[in-house]
Amino acid sequence: MTENKQQNKQDKKPAWISFGITTVLYLAFLYWVGSWWGLLVMPLIYDLYISRKINWSWWREPEVGPATRFVMSWVDAIVFALVAIYFLNQFFFQNFVIPSSSLEKTLLTGDYLLVSKLSYGPRIPQTPLTMPLTQHTLPILNCRSYLEWPQWEYRRVKGLGDVQLNDIVVFNYPAGDTVALNQQNQDYYRMAYQLGDQMLGGQPATPDAEPTLASASLRPNMSYDEQQNFFRKLYAAGTSYMRSQPEQFGEVVSRPTDRRENYVKRCVGLPGQTLQIRNNVVYLNGKPNREPENVQYAYEVTFKQDLPEDLKLELGITDEDLYTSRNGQTVWMPLTRVAKQALQRRPDIVSSIRPAQPAADWLYPQNMVKSWTTANYGPVWIPKKGATLQLTLANLPIYERPIRVYEGNDLQVRGGKIFINGKQTDKYTFRLNYYWMMGDNRDNSADSRFWGFVPEDHIVGKPLFVWLSLDGDYGWFSGHHVRWNRFFKRVWDIK
């Protein structure tokens, strides 16, 4: 009898060691995330290692048929993998692929990045019940990949640091709270104003038209009420049109913060700074900010002949850059300083290069009369957590979205006076930090100039390095599809 007890103690010793290690690691995790609700799971962990009242591996017993054992072994492996991936993606690291050219030539379309959530601190999931490896939509089924309930308040775990000036940052698209599912690559709000502008201007409604219609009647000397009434009419007309054309725009849906599309841009403005763009140069508190080495601007280039393939590869010029390239045609294209100088040295190929004038319609805020362009914008003060702003009817359009949408206040203007949560005021103290994001491909980037500030609760993480890079202009067997020279390049080392 004594021998049996001794044997049982010996058998349980490894189980107690495993339980102890698991418990210490789990408690450390709960302390880090600051949530002790996870202690409710401790009885299950104890049972798994020690008491074993629940038969967790019933499918491994001899009396269970081989078919059941085979199926359950796969189910067990898949469930474990999904749970592990969920926690890794949520709290530590996430994959991200560059989908467009807005950061070229710093990051290239087709670069696959490992994004660290530890750099700025991972967010506690706001929509915790979601399918791993999906952002908002299940493939094939084309339905939501998450449950809208429960939704938790924003909270961020302590990370390794804060967002720094000129960091490349992955974040949730701020204007992505409302999306037309058949036009997901379009800013819903900008599209609504643009369509309304066309309709009230008596022109056919199309998302790609130029803004030369009803908005031409706006005047800087209009009163606040006159301006806002006009913009409300445009917005109402645009949204009504989109909802009346479901075959073109699809269902209009709302998304929680952490289920909005992921974007990647460079942070060029920090909380509390005053930002202004003058002749394409970003100024912060009156001082010019350092430009990235690979920054691109748009030029009109007139070619004498097609651009040779070897020169395209040498200068990193893609098919997307050559929007309308034909022999002898003028092309609107982005160029780095190095690429521009190289083309200027080739009079056999290029006859002229001159700065382009990119269209800049419906810049943020869309509901304000202004003469800003993408090259000459602002000034705007970037909200800082705990800072108090003096509100006026002149600056209210700039800050109403942070106050109303991002921080959840009821904001109204009645009789020329501002009311927040029912109380008249001319001040507001911000609860979140905000950032200003821009692409390095400055004239071909949908960024803060179009959709405004990025709140801190939208910050996802910091890209660390490129682990894969594929060039979509070339096939797999061309020798150029895989950009081998970019493998494992640290993002901060890419100039």
Q: TL;DR of this structure?
A:
The chain has 495 residues and is an alpha+beta fold.
What does this structure look like?
It is a single chain. This protein is of the alpha+beta class. Among the domains are: 2-91, no CATH class; 188-249, no CATH class. Helix content is 27%, strand content 21%. The protein has 10 helices and 22 strands. The strands form 6 sheets. Strands 1, 2, 3, 6, 19, 20, 21 and 22 form an 8-stranded antiparallel sheet that branches. A hairpin with a 2-residue loop joins strand 16 and strand 17. Helix 1 packs antiparallel against helix 2 (42-51) and helix 4 (188-200) crosses helix 5 (224-244). The protein is globular.
Using brief descriptors, characterize the structure shown:
495 residues, 27% helix, 4-stranded antiparallel β-sheet, single chain, alpha+beta, 10 helices, 8-stranded antiparallel β-sheet, globular
Residue-averaged pLDDT, rounded? 90
Tally of extended strands?
A: 22
* Overall 3D form: globular
Number of helices: 10
Q: What does the main sheet amount to?
A: 8 strands, antiparallel
| Helix and strand composition category | alpha+beta
Q: Radius of gyration over alpha carbons?
A: 27 Å
* Helix content, binned percent: 25-40%
Q: Indicate the proportion of strand residues.
A: 15-25%
Per-chain topology:
Elements: H1 2-33, H2 42-51, H3 66-91, E1 93-97, E2 111-116, E3 168-172, E4 178-180, H4 188-200, H5 224-244, H6 246-249, E5 252-254, E6 262-269, E7 274-278, E8 281-284, E9 287-288, E10 296-303, H7 309-315, E11 330-336, H8 337-344, E12 350-355, E13 377-381, E14 388-390, H9 396-406, E15 411-414, E16 417-420, E17 423-424, E18 427-429, E19 434-438, H10 448-451, E20 454-455, E21 459-469, E22 489-490
Antiparallel strand pairs: 1-2, 2-21, 3-6, 3-21, 4-5, 6-19, 7-8, 7-13, 8-9, 10-11, 10-12, 14-18, 15-16, 16-17, 19-20, 21-22
